[in-house]
Amino acid sequence: MANTFGTDILIQAQDPKKAALFYVEQLGFKITDENPNMISLHGEHINLFIERGPALGPVLEVTVDSVEGAKLRLVKNGCEIVKDEPDFPRCYIKDPFGLIYNLRS
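Given the sequence above, the corresponding structure tokens read:
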């Protein structure tokens, strides 16, 4: 059950550009990539990605050996699938304590 926490955090916002400008102006992030549905920002020790969509809250990226295996194990132990994207492959999981993970392999 090896996993790796990344330096990436993803949030979702209805207006990614507006959200990105807040983080640039208030916290010193730099926009490093921009398209209509995703803006990438980098800080000194963390990468912040703002995706167009309904707010889920902060999402931590966790790299796992198998997205399917981790998903089955976590759901069996009280987690809830928030968004599943098997073609990517990635899956957003909410744990019983409210934290959301982006599982990816």
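The chain is about 20% helix and 50% strand. Try to locate this feature in the token string yourself.
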